[in-house]
Input
Amino acid sequence: MTKTELNKFKNILEAKREELEAFVRNREGIAIEKSPDALDEVQHAAERELAIRNLDRESNLLRNVRAALRRLDEGAFGVCLHCEEDISPKRLAAVPWTAFCIQCQEVADRNAAGDGSEAFDEFLVPAA
Ligand SMILES: [Zn+2]
Output
């Protein structure tokens, strides 16, 4: 990958990180908000649950974006963490923070969908 291409991905990833950090900051407030009115409690509980689910998803994404930026700095960007093959440019363009080539991602998704194997999940959430 050329320096220009890497810079382009860096810009995309940094913009995404900022967007997600702002989102997660806002959502954390909503997720812990308590209603003093019992009648609102059911509605609020549903909203909180949704907010927490979104927060989970966005937090995961944020972790992936941060990890991708780290790989960029380390010169390992664009290489599958699992099989060490180059990730296709088309896939990187669509999902710049991906850590896996499409084949490995499919295996990971299948495992995540629940066949009892969690070994591969380790790769999906690199330790911060
Ligand atoms: Zn792979």
Summary: The pocket of zinc ion is lined by residues 80, 82-83, 85, 100-101, 103-104 (CB under 6 Å).
